[in-house]
Amino acid sequence: MLASFRSLTQAAPRFPHPRFLAQPAIQRDSRFKQISAADVQAFRQILGDAAVITNADDLTAFNVDWMNRYRGASTIALKPTSTDHVSQIMQYCNHRLLAVVPQGGNTGLVGGSVPVFDELILSLSAMNQIEHLDETSGVVTTQAGVVLEALDNYVGAAGYRVPLDLGAKGSCQIGGNVATNAGGSRFVRYGPLRASVVGMEAVLPDGRVFDAMTTVRKDNTGYDLKQLMIGAEGTLGVITRLAIACPMKSSCVDTMVVHVTSSERISPLLRLARQSLGEVLSAIEYMDSSSVRMADTNLSHVSDPLSIPDDPQHSLVLIECAGSNAEHNREKLEAFLEAAFEQELVADGVIAESETQSNELWELRESLPEAVLKAGAAATLKYDVSVPIAHFNEMIDVAKERVKDLGAVQVCGWGHIGDENLHLNVAIQDDTQKDTAQLRLEPWVYEYVSGVGGSISAEHGLGVMKAGAIGYSKGDIAVDVMRTIKDVLDVNGICNPYKVLTTSSQ
Amino acid sequence: MLASFRSLTQAAPRFPHPRFLAQPAIQRDSRFKQISAADVQAFRQILGDAAVITNADDLTAFNVDWMNRYRGASTIALKPTSTDHVSQIMQYCNHRLLAVVPQGGNTGLVGGSVPVFDELILSLSAMNQIEHLDETSGVVTTQAGVVLEALDNYVGAAGYRVPLDLGAKGSCQIGGNVATNAGGSRFVRYGPLRASVVGMEAVLPDGRVFDAMTTVRKDNTGYDLKQLMIGAEGTLGVITRLAIACPMKSSCVDTMVVHVTSSERISPLLRLARQSLGEVLSAIEYMDSSSVRMADTNLSHVSDPLSIPDDPQHSLVLIECAGSNAEHNREKLEAFLEAAFEQELVADGVIAESETQSNELWELRESLPEAVLKAGAAATLKYDVSVPIAHFNEMIDVAKERVKDLGAVQVCGWGHIGDENLHLNVAIQDDTQKDTAQLRLEPWVYEYVSGVGGSISAEHGLGVMKAGAIGYSKGDIAVDVMRTIKDVLDVNGICNPYKVLTTSSQ
């Protein structure tokens, strides 16, 4: 097993200047002006005083990401309430050469939503109106600053659900979700978020309002430009409004957690789940024994329901079935479990008998990021990658091996099996070991992923963290074309600079 | 009901120069060179003699679309077998200023895949190798010229299905499907084709090979440029290879056709189907009484299984359920039918008891385009639009009203109810009435669709037919951005000119 990665680490790194390491060597782009008193006054005239934040204390929450890993030094945050506001702001900033970072719920993990230097912060949080749900088509129109959970509750009242769910749902915003093409645990059922975005309004870097706010599911009239905005992480403009096609909510949901005793059984388990659960399979999530132990140890409100051993081969898999007929769901689930036991794919399992129990099982899965944060107070290195499932365990094992002599460093992994998406996490308790741990893991992680044809960012995006590492997942020509498009749509480069693509001027 | 469209027709047309009318007033772009003997020789050196077609008889099939509505005058068609071939061809053409039209199965309905003048035809039909199916992830990699049905059969043998199905499956090619973001009857279950394309290789207009051939489902590393190519109808480059995520094939499929006696019952029927069939609903297709009658009358191999009356309020709806458990499917289907009868949403129905019967029901739906062609030998006007379901019947009624005094003109409609996608068809038997019929219907169709927030091309694309009408579905700024991107990626404008976007130089 180990041979395959060893040859990778011996290979010359494809990326000669690893600027994604501990302190990215990014220089402030000198083309950008600093915010002046006259600028502040201009913004107050556009937005009113209350929506212009310049107080240092108030600005802290906007300048720092929730992992406390990236910290900007912006002197101003704006909270527009309308598309027209955003348009005026962008027009002004483009004219005055002020760099702008759009910010949603600020729950990203790659430093994409906070300033790197003194970029103006454009917070969408006051654009939080849900406009309309078409109860026949299930298409909801909304402003971009609406919190995901609020949107899900809103459409839920009419029998629909947002085709996206993730741990940060209580604070992330739908505009940010779309700007980063968020993945999450419903991906396996509903596909990528970009597939459900049927309409979009966005403000381009020069202030022009790009209006593609259709609410029909099929529209093949020209290039689907909103797809460019989806996943551009705010570097091509600011998403202000959205129309999202929502599927009907299933009337019956079953949740179970099973204990898998060998990493080699994960792939056949997935295949069996797809076969026997078929159309009711709505989530299949992986948690290795280390992450389960970290949650069990560090968090009082969750526990391992199956008390799995502390052994890297062992893991828990959470499976959710959602359908329109409770009996059918249960029959499929039982047939699946029976076959899984018969084929010795699972050793034990627990099925939630109530919504409360179901929530408890999900709570374990969703608390893992928090558990890791608590396990490593000094720093957490997070890698969100796509690799074939067969490589999940190998990656975790090798990562452990690489940092094991550093003492209090805990490595664990979890992810979305159906999407081949692994979240590799490294919790470091001693701050002085952070850089060493990172040097041991990077560029190894990126080389490994690239070597097996995966993606170095499955669902978190590139942000500032991985902007310099794009070459591990995208070829030179693709990057050139991206840069061409960025340059032609954001002529002055003011829109979320230093993110996604590094530029030659930096 | 009629009031709403009347006000629309009175409004000033948004598009002042309707170049989509009978004979589009397109001028050949004088920048493009004509094919010389030296060019032919150069292509022979790249491809070998057999792959360079210059014989007038052989060229006919490449120059004319299958509706016999659009006819180019190209003097050369090339059949490359590798990406390298395509790259060399495009580099040569870009250098020599030769315009190129990429062509797949040539089954499009908007004239997108045939030359308008003497563009070189680049046929992908010899790039027809299926490369690999990953049996764990269900991702298939393939060359672009593979016929859809062949691809479906290939993955079908391993228990998967291509998430796309349409009437032309026996001849359309997957590259063309992706280039036009084809819709079809599986859209309601699997969403847009673009959601399932995980990897792409394409040759840019200047010959550079854009390699994004990943096979992982999640990849958020920079702008998703392949999304730009999807639906660009070959105007931004030539798709050469693809990786497509396939869902597992359902082990049990039930097909039924029901008789709906009033157009107002279609929306509640769809809602009921979504609720009671839930996750097993895999197609829900509409056929108005006129289209059913046309098929029944003009085609010997299909018939109306429920003998519905010749009344515009009446229609047939085909419903397919696909799942992993035959009993569950059937129970859901029966519960649905019971409720549908109880709520008086359907008057009659027939359920296929065998695969043969199921094929017969589908055959009726898929033969409608052919039936219309036979009904109107002189010409058929086809409008593929997205509008809320409530407008389906109104559009058909008004269209009938507008052309009823023209004699032998038959109007009918069918479509994908779950996607709000209506195919309005007008069969004209007398060639001299064609232009009059078209003038009565255009720009009315486009104005109507625009007025209700729909799309003037739901799944067929713009091609040459609707290039000038883009303004009905897209705003000026969106069109400007499209043009900006086209100009920067295809500097010489050689890639499928006169399609999708008209240019100022024309």
UniProtKB/TrEMBL annotation, chains A, B:
InterPro entries: FAD-bd_oxidored_4_C, FAD-bd_PCMH, FAD-bd_PCMH-like_sf, FAD-bd_PCMH_sub1, FAD-bd_PCMH_sub2, FAD-linked_Oxase-like_C, FAD-oxidored/transferase_4, Oxid_FAD_bind_N
Residue ranges of every copy of the FAD-binding PCMH-type domain listed in the record: 70-249
Cofactor names: FAD
One annotated GO molecular function: FAD binding
Keywords assigned: FAD, Flavoprotein, Oxidoreductase
Pfam families named among the record's database cross-references: FAD-oxidase_C (PF02913), FAD_binding_4 (PF01565)
Protein name, entry field: Putative D-2-hydroxyglutarate dehydrogenase, mitochondrial
